[in-house]
Design the sequence.
């Protein structure tokens, strides 16, 4: 086969040989839509094989895939069924496409939900145990025990990533989860949808612990990482990532499950853990990291709390992390307690520069995010010190979206220290008061942002969009994106992320002005770049004239003069 390809390539023009490089075609086809790759599959036999890989690599739904076996029609009650039962020859033809599938996603609540009969026929007629032999990822969303059982058809030892729904009728003593783990023993990541808020997960986690020895990542809905669950997970030898997600489709646990977070760890707990996400009280987490055998070697920590915490509690927690977690490089402190009783900030409840000072003792910190309902109490001089003492920062989100926006402590000048001291900064989030009268002078001393990709202004107030856009264009790279608005409503459950109508109206008033800045900024940046290019060209021309003048004067035997004018 290789000799045939070589002889074919030699007979082609040089410019056409590039379209016979398999790796390049794989890359090109991966960026095209399905319709385009169907056309590519019809070009020639060589292209067909590569295009079919791109078409069938990711499959959303089962009907189109199973239709390769036999035509499928909609029967009574909307159920999908084969018009004729698949035979041996049908399965032989199916294998040509089945071996290309790497990811399969199916949701029984979708339009293709009534596929139970077709799946039962597949189970009865299949000619091999592994229907999709090269499947690496399976997403199986369902709401009942029988539907969950049908995922067994697609499990095998080479499956690496699995997303499942833990249905309400799956009891802790049910052997189905054990069967699922036994059929896919080499899983590396597991994501579980849990629809019942009060479902006890300890029994299911114990099954996972006993059967999935190579598991590296586990994802659960919020409030399901209880003390008991963490204790069980601490015994998994290869577990590196513990993560919760706010996705409401995954379900949400009961907040009462994490009102007290007091896991008791044993010697050798979390031998491989490096990424930890938890919802709990700050003071409970502080005691957790001070306890024996705590996972102090982690590099990433995401902390979420709905309790009311004082600045002193937050500082004490950060101080503990700086003392115990020496390898920490990414830290997120998300404080989502949102009760506001007064129209002005309560100074004693505001986080301040003093609160954040322990960060300077975390030597590897490159990513820090903090969210709080009140603006940070911080001065321009303190911003200068923070930027100068954390020069390795790559992402910094300094509470850019407080709920109370009437007392901003900073203006646009707060951006300049980060341009001067943080050359690796890719994402910066600040809460400021951007007004035309307080825009820094264009002659102010600052460097250009070389790597900045996102500036998150959150709920920052703004009075003069045109003046603000003109200032930002002085030191923003053309690829930098302006981000604004609030993300509080995208965190946690509906009950806990909802904001009052008054708060939403007040916060929405800043959106349109910042959208105007976002529209103006690209054109202004381009004008600035063209201006700088012209200035640089003029400087180079003047320098060239100076060199020529010196050479002319030296040739004429005259003493050199630092001037481009020849007398």
Sequence:
């Amino acid at each position: 086969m290789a000799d045939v390809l070589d002889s074919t390539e030699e007979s082609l023009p040089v410019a056409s040989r590039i379209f016979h490089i398999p790796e390049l075609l794989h890359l090109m086809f991966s960026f095209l839509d399905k319709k385009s790759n169907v056309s590519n599959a019809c070009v020639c036999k060589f292209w067909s094989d590569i295009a079919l890989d791109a078409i069938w690599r990711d499959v959303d739904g089962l009907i189109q895939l199973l239709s390769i076996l036999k035509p499928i029609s909609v029967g009574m009650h909307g159920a999908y069924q084969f018009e004729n039962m698949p035979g041996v020859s049908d399965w032989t033809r199916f294998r040509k496409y089945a071996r290309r599938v790497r990811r399969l996603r199916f949701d029984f609540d979708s339009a293709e939900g009534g596929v139970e009969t077709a799946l039962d026929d597949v189970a009865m007629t299949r000619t091999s145990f592994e229907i999709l032999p090269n499947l690496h990822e399976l997403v199986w969303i369902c709401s009942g025990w029988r539907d969950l059982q049908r995922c067994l058809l697609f499990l095998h030892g080479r499956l690496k990533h699995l997303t499942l729904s833990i249905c309400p009728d799956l009891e802790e003593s049910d052997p189905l989860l054990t069967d699922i783990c036994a059929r896919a023993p080499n899983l590396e990541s597991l994501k579980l949808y849990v629809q019942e808020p009060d479902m006890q997960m300890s029994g299911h986690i114990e099954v996972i612990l006993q059967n999935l020895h190579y598991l590296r990542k586990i994802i659960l809905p919020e409030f399901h990482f209880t003390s008991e669950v963490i204790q069980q997970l601490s015994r998994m030898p290869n577990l590196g990532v513990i993560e919760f997600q706010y996705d409401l489709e995954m379900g949400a646990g009961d907040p009462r499950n994490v009102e007290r977070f007091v896991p008791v760890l044993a010697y050798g707990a979390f031998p491989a853990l490096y990424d930890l996400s938890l919802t709990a009280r700050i003071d409970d987490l502080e005691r957790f990291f001070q306890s024996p055998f705590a996972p102090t070697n982690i590099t990433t920590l995401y902390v979420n709390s709905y309790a009311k915490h004082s600045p002193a509690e937050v500082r004490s927690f950060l101080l503990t992390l700086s003392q115990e977690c020496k390898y920490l490089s990414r830290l997120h402190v998300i404080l989502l307690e949102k009760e506001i009783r007064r129209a002005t900030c309560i100074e004693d409840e505001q986080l301040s520069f003093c609160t954040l000072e322990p960060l300077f003792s975390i030597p590897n910190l490159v990513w820090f995010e903090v969210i709080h309902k009140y603006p940070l109490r911080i001065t321009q001089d303190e911003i200068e010190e923070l930027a100068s003492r954390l020069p390795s920062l790559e992402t910094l989100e300094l509470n850019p979206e407080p709920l109370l926006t009437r007392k901003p402590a900073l203006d646009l000048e707060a951006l300049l220290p980060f341009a001067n001291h943080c050359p690796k900064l890719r994402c910066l989030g600040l809460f400021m008061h951007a007004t035309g009268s307080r825009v820094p002078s264009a002659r102010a001393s600052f460097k250009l942002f070389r790597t900045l990709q996102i500036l998150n202004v959150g709920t920052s107030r703004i009075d003069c969009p045109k003046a603000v856009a003109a200032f930002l264009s002085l030191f923003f790279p053309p690829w930098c994106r302006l981000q604004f608005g609030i993300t509080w409503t995208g965190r946690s459950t509906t009950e806990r992320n909802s904001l009052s109508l008054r708060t939403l109206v007040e916060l929405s008033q800043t959106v349109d002005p910042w959208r105007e800045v976002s529209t103006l900024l690209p054109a202004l940046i381009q004008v600035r770049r063209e201006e700088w290019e012209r200035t640089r060209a003029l400087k180079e021309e003047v320098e060239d004239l100076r060199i020529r003048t010196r050479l002319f004067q030296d040739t004429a035997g005259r003493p050199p003069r630092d001037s481009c004018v020849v007398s």
